[in-house]
Amino acid sequence: MITAIVLIHAVAESIPDAAQSIAELDGVEEVYSCAGEVDLIAVIRVAAHEDLADLIPARIGKVAGVLDTDTHIAFRSYSRTDTESAFDIGVAD
């Protein structure tokens, strides 16, 4: 599974509608509106790199109100949940 984080610039008044449209696309796990240099952040999970090529420029990039995207492909996940679950292996409750 390939995970990508897509930073999205959008027209201010279209942010809620654009976020909802993006969230409904297959392969999009979550969409966040945020403060800062970007308007939306989308978390994408797809099976192959070719799926990213279809999803991001062809579908997310064409959502009404989307001005630009900047895609970052994740190599590895680090989280407290992953670390804690690793220590639970073999431990009976």
Primary descriptors:
globular; 93 residues; single chain; 26% helix; alpha+beta; Alpha-Beta Plaits; 3 helices
Task: Walk me through what this model shows.
The protein is of the alpha+beta class. The protein has helices at 15-23, 49-55, 80-87, and strands at residues 2-10, 28-33, 40-46, 66-73. It has a single domain (2-77), classed as 2-Layer Sandwich (Alpha-Beta Plaits). It has a 4-stranded antiparallel beta sheet with strand order 2-3-1-4. It is globular and about 35 Å long. InterPro entries: Dimeric_a/b-barrel, Tscrpt_reg_AsnC/Lrp_C.
Please give a quick description of this structure.
The chain is an alpha+beta fold. It has 3 helices and 4 strands; from the N terminus they run βαββαβα.
Topology, element by element:
Layout: E1 2-10, H1 15-23, E2 28-33, E3 40-46, H2 49-55, E4 66-73, H3 80-87
Structural class: alpha+beta
CATH class: Alpha Beta
Number of strands: 4
The main sheet orders its strands as: 2-3-1-4
- Stretches where pLDDT is under 50 for at least 5 consecutive residues are none
CATH architecture title: 2-Layer Sandwich
Report the major sheet: 4 strands, antiparallel
Q: What is the assigned CATH homologous superfamily? A: Lrp/AsnC effector binding domain/regulation of amino acid metabolism (RAM) domain
Estimate the global geometry from the Cα principal axes.
globular
Organism: Amycolatopsis antarctica
Protein name: AsnC family transcriptional regulator
Domain Transcription regulator AsnC/Lrp ligand binding: 8-76
InterPro entries: Dimeric_a/b-barrel, Tscrpt_reg_AsnC/Lrp_C
